[in-house]
Structures are given as structure tokens and as C-alpha cells.
Design brief:
- 35% of the residues lie in helices and 22% in strands.
- It contains twelve helices and 13 strands.
- It has helices at residues 5-8, 27-35, 81-98, 119-136, 186-194, 200-210, 216-221, 236-248, 265-270, 276-285, 297-304, 321-330, and strands at residues 46-48, 57-60, 66-74, 102-112, 140-147, 152-161, 177-180, 226-231, 251-254, 289-291, 312-316, 337-343, 348-351.
- The chain has a seven-stranded mixed β-sheet with strand order 8-11-7-12-9-13-10, sandwiched between helices. Strands 1-2-3-6-4-5 form a six-stranded mixed β-sheet, covered by helices on one side.
- It is globular, with a radius of gyration of 19 Å.
- The N and C termini lie far apart (61 Å).
Amino acid sequence: MATDIADVVPRLTSLSHGGGCGCKIAPGVLEELLRETAATVPVAALLVGRETGDDAAVYRLNDEQAIIATTDFFMPIVDDPFDFGRIAATNALSDVYAMGGTPLFALAIVGMPLKVLPVSVIREVLRGGEAICAEAGVPVAGGHSIDSVEPIYGLVAIGQVAPGTVKRNSAARSGDALVLGKPLGVGILSAALKKGLLDEAGYRRMLDTTTRLNKAGPALASLQGVHAMTDVTGFGLLGHLLGVCRGAGLRASIEFSRIPLLPDVTRLAAEGVVTGASARNWTSYGAAVTLGESIDAARRALLTDPQTSGGLLVSCEPAAVDDVVSVFRQHGCAEATIIGQLIPGSPGIEVE
């Protein structure tokens, strides 16, 4: 009797020590690694470099055009190879949208254990990435592959933007409102999946949010009153918001009750279904965060939960909030809402 390939191929998530953006090096460790590296040689045309840990590099070609360049890759967050490819590609393209740009083309980054995974499975990963790129209207024009111990997939994403509409994470202003485009909880759902605790409905919800392109980026960047944007990924909401605060020299005040959450993640977090990356994130930047009495361990885990292909976080004038939310909803982000504001003070975050 023939053996079904599903009976002999291991689960993708069993082949890696982490998954999705939870694979990221912890913020504190990353800061230590970069502290001793040489400073970037000043180049007038380099509009955005690595100074504030922004989502992508931006290089000005002329007064009307600038190129956005970014790369993002990780190990499997799900077991279905096609879904893994889709999630990884959506996540990589998000950095272009977060700068206010439009993707032009992509290059695939592929590392696969060839002695463990059959070519048919690897091809499904690539096909998933190509499907998302087709949805975004960009070709996968090439790439690079290696034989690796753990499965890895992602993209180099190249985009374009008008220099005047680039949205840095450091350009926020005091008094700005903070609007989040997608609900939190992807890392918690991925932990539940790995433990066999995620039902089909939960998996579909996770897949829906992680494969939803942040196409709202360019339209948001063109709105009067939008000052800064970033996307929320592996460092969690607090980590990426802290990057905005430090870049702008401001303090953030957010209300936990306003933050959109994926269904069931509060219960799962309360039961201890969280990722190791959540605790690493808190260790890295918790000293800069003040939590109110209502923020228990489960809520803190949600605030630091690593988001794979998370939502855009927008800093805008209060008068622009309605327009920002409207643009989000026009692009399929029905949960978009205001979660707090930026205020004068030493860089940090207050959560009530």
C-alpha cells in the first residue's frame, strides 16, 4: 500500500526552534550587537538608514522618486507550506507599506533542510509567497537559496515612494493620536497551534490577519496630518511603539481597553499559552514602560506578543483620526482604532 506523504513529512513547526517574527533577536540583544558596529557613512541621498531602527531603508533618486529596500525572513509559524509562504511574503512586503511606499518587485530568500523536506513541500512554500506577491502586483524576480538545518523563507522587497511622503517612525509629534490597524494576538495563536490547542476557526482567524496585506500604507502616507508610521511585528506593540517614542523624543499613553485583540487570545494568555519571545521582549524594554494596576501578566503578554505580519501603527493629528480609520477600513482593516496618544516627556510608554 502506498504511503501518504503527510505520514512521512514532519510538521514544519517541529523543524525550527521558533516561528514567524518570534524568531527575531530580542531588542536588547540587537542593541548590544549594533552598539559596536561602525556608524553609517553619511550619504545625502540616504533618507532613512538604521539610526532609529525604521522598517526599511530609503534612498532618494531625485525630487520625485525614492527607492525603498528591506528584507524579512523567518522559520515556520504554521505547518501548511503554502500558508507559511503566504504569511512570510505578506510580512516582508509590509515594511514597504509602512514607509508609505508601493512594492515594485521581490527576491526570494530560501533556506531548507533538503534531506528532510521533499521538493514538493518546498515548492508549496515558494508558491505561497508568489501568490501573495501576485496579489500585491509584484513579481518575484529572483532570489537565493541554501541547504539549511531549519526551514527559512522570506523576501527582499524593493519599493518606491515620493521623497516628500516617506513616513519615518521618528517623525511623530506631541499631541498625535495613535491608531492601530490590526488586532494583536498572533504570537499567542501560534503558540496554541504548536501545542495543539488551536481549533480550525482560530487557525482561520490567524491566517486571515497574517495574510492581509497592509496596502493602506501609501494612502495613509498621503493624508494630511499623518506624521509617522511603523508596523507592529516581532518586538510586540510596546517594542515598536517605543521605537516611535525614542525617535521622536516623546512619551506614549495608551489604554489597554482600546487595543483590538484577536478572539480568544486573552483567555489563552491567561492560561499561559504565550511565546518565549514575549518574555524576552519585556526583559529588553520593560524598564521604559509603566503599567497600570489593571495590567496583569496576561495583558502584559499581549502587549509584548510578537506579531507576525502585524498591523500598521499610525501617529497622526487628532483631526485626522477619522480619515485614517476610514482608509484602514477601505483596505480591509475593520478593527482599526485609536489606542492612545503621544505626550511630552522622556521616551517611554504608560499603559492604563
